[in-house]
Design a protein that fits this description.
The complex is a heterodimer. Chain A is an alpha+beta fold. Chain A contains three helices and seven strands; from the N terminus they run βββαβαβββα. Chain B is 32% helix and 10% strand. The chains are: A alpha+beta, B alpha+beta.
Chain lengths: 146, 62
């Protein structure tokens, strides 16, 4: 019965939109194998043809900005006001390398809520950074074609 | 009970105090780490065909 579901699981019925920033599990080194929630950027939302299940193509965020090396490759957010507007607790880099982007089922095994939150969504990528993302992906495709 | 729970909604930017766990993600994002989650998801993802319903589809990464 729907009312028997834990309150946190009700968010499964509300999938995110593209460019939402949500909290997802990622393995940490210390302790090894522990899964901690961290912000990640939803790039695409997909639906299963047979079951109608939802999956999200996401890239995880990291506080390791490596700004000089990665400014031409990744979406990096440092502006304090922008961080507040997007619900991010610290300056964050979203790695756009293909081997760092992953398709995850929208369920409690891969996504979760920080304490005090009712949904994994913590914010939405501002339009300026959505444009940055589109530009960076165009640059990546151009480099691949060379 | 947290402020958010008392108020029954997500907090605004002015009200929000991030939980401690928000600051516990220390590791960089690496292909090895992402691959751990990819393998966990593989069973569910490979079970069916997926269609994009939102987003530009600029990457085909699985």
């Amino acid at each position: 019965m729907a009312s028997d579901l834990p309150k946190q699981s009700k968010w499964i019925a509300q999938p995110p939109s593209a460019f939402d920033i949500v909290t997802a599990y990622y393995p940490e080194a210390n302790p090894k194998g522990a899964l901690n929630l961290r912000p990640c950027l939803v790039l695409d939302v997909l639906k299963g043809k047979e079951t109608g299940a939802i999956a999200c193509r996401v890239t995880y965020g990291t506080k390791n900005l490596r700004f000089v090396q990665r400014k031409r490759h990744d979406v990096i957010i440092q502006n304090h006001q922008h961080l507040n507007q997007m619900g991010l607790p610290y300056a964050t880099r979203f790695n756009l390398d293909e081997d760092c982007v992953v398709l995850l089922p929208w369920d409690t095994e891969f996504f979760g809520c920080w304490r005090g939150y009712f949904h994994p969504k913590i914010g939405t990528l501002l339009e300026k950074y959505q444009k940055d993302y589109a530009f960076l992906m165009a640059m990546r495709q151009a480099e691949q074609q060379e | 009970m947290s402020t958010a729970a008392r108020m029954g909604r997500n907090l605004s930017d002015d009200e929000r105090n991030f939980p401690v766990e928000a600051y516990e993600a220390h590791d960089d994002v690496t292909p090895v780490g992402v691959d751990v989650m990819r393998k966990k998801a593989a069973d569910k993802i490979n079970r069916e065909e997926w269609v994009i319903i939102d987003g530009f589809g600029l990457t085909q990464a699985k």
